[in-house]
Design a protein that fits this description.
It is built from four helices and four strands. The chain has helices spanning about 5-10, 25-30, 35-40, 95-100; strands at about 45-50, 60-65, 70-80, 80-90.
């Protein structure tokens, strides 16, 4: 378990879904909120800081698998001890290579 994972999950108690983010990934990429949440409970899970997009708030990206083994790339932040998914999509070939080497 990496340092970022411990830092995030020792402080989080759930997920934050609202009108602005609950349907966005479904409409664009057919990724449901439930699938997005599943990757955080399945292993392996790769989490890194998204330095490029962390200007206004700290953002992270995660590479993980759903319960049905769908591999997803998720961008998220943490607000008020809740994980807030910003976007979710299928992993690219390069992302799958990184994920499979973990």
């Amino acid at each position: 378990m990496n340092k970022i994972y411990k830092e995030i999950f020792t402080q989080c108690s759930g997920f934050d879904w609202n009108k602005g983010n609950i349907d966005k990934s479904w409409i664009k990429h057919k990724v449901s909120p439930a699938e997005s949440e599943q990757i955080f409970f399945n292993r392996p899970l790769v989490i890194q800081y998204d330095i490029l997009h962390s200007k206004t708030e700290k953002r992270f990206y995660a590479l993980g698998k759903t319960d049905l083994k769908r591999t997803l790339f998720i961008v998220f932040t943490v607000r008020s001890n809740l994980i807030r998914v910003i976007s979710a999509r299928d992993m690219s070939r390069k992302e799958r290579e990184i994920y499979n080497n973990e």
